[in-house]
């Protein structure tokens, strides 16, 4: 007499297990990221550098909308330099820096949350290679300083760093705080460069570009030292 209920309960439990499957969640993450990447390719956010901002958006509304769009774009692997330059070109050095930094933290938080919710359980058992376990240990035990260094010395793509951190055991607060502090110098340089792009021979523009070049050189030096240290283990 109670068989149908038992059967129904078993079916519901089976569906729940499927929905909660780590691999299904990971597949959903890939689908979302692929969809976002296709949407960005269709929208072409780099057009902001040439076409400008929609005329119907202005003031605080434009800043909020741009910060939200910035966060979504970085989640879908749009390069931050393009967005930072656009922020400076559209809003000036100060407001451009503020909106770009807000979008940076928002995008990092979105990617970290997606990776933690949909990818961590499936990917953690796969961290068996020596360099993967070393990277995971570094992020899990020294997450703040590791993310701070990654943001200060650009090299590893922004979105890739976000998803790698999500798979580790580092906490939300260290991740977001390190992202905000570490991204500040380079974001400021890109915003200034974007604001002064019309006068590329100006001292301010040249200083901003020189700072970015030195940051890239520093990133190469740090990466080389880390590579040698890993070889020596």
TrEMBL record:
<protein>
    <recommendedName>
        <fullName>TVP38/TMEM64 family membrane protein</fullName>
    </recommendedName>
</protein>
<dbReference type="Pfam" id="PF09335">
    <property type="entry name" value="VTT_dom"/>
</dbReference>
<feature type="transmembrane region" description="Helical">
    <location>
        <begin position="90"/>
        <end position="114"/>
    </location>
</feature>
<keyword id="KW-0812">Transmembrane</keyword>
<feature type="domain" description="VTT">
    <location>
        <begin position="78"/>
        <end position="195"/>
    </location>
</feature>
<feature type="transmembrane region" description="Helical">
    <location>
        <begin position="172"/>
        <end position="192"/>
    </location>
</feature>
<keyword id="KW-1133">Transmembrane helix</keyword>
<feature type="transmembrane region" description="Helical">
    <location>
        <begin position="55"/>
        <end position="78"/>
    </location>
</feature>
<feature type="transmembrane region" description="Helical">
    <location>
        <begin position="204"/>
        <end position="224"/>
    </location>
</feature>
<dbReference type="InterPro" id="IPR032816">
    <property type="entry name" value="VTT_dom"/>
</dbReference>
<feature type="transmembrane region" description="Helical">
    <location>
        <begin position="26"/>
        <end position="43"/>
    </location>
</feature>
<keyword id="KW-1003">Cell membrane</keyword>
<keyword id="KW-0472">Membrane</keyword>
<comment type="similarity">
    <text>Belongs to the TVP38/TMEM64 family.</text>
</comment>
<dbReference type="InterPro" id="IPR015414">
    <property type="entry name" value="TMEM64"/>
</dbReference>
């Amino acid at each position: 007499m109670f068989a149908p209920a038992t059967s129904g309960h078993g079916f519901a439990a089976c569906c729940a297990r499927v929905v909660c499957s780590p691999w299904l969640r990971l597949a959903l993450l890939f689908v979302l990221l692929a969809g976002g990447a296709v949407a960005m390719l269709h929208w072409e956010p780099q057009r902001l550098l040439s076409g400008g901002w929609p005329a119907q958006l202005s003031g605080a509304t434009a800043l909020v909308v741009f910060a939200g769009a910035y966060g979504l774009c970085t989640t879908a692997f749009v390069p931050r330099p393009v967005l930072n330059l656009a922020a400076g070109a559209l809003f000036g050095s100060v407001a451009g820096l503020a909106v770009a930094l807000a979008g940076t933290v928002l995008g990092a938080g979105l990617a970290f949350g997606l990776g933690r919710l949909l990818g961590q359980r499936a990917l953690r058992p796969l961290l068996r290679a020596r360099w993967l376990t070393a990277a995971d240990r570094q992020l899990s035990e020294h997450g703040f300083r590791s993310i701070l260094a990654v943001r200060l010395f650009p090299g590893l793509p922004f979105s890739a760093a976000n998803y790698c951190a999500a798979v580790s055991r580092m906490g939300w607060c260290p991740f977001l705080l390190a992202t905000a502090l570490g991204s500040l110098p380079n974001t400021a340089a890109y915003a200034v460069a974007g604001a002064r792009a019309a006068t590329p021979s100006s001292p301010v523009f040249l200083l901003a570009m020189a700072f970015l070049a030195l940051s890239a050189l520093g990133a190469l030096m740090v990466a080389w030292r880390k590579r040698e240290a890993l070889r020596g283990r």
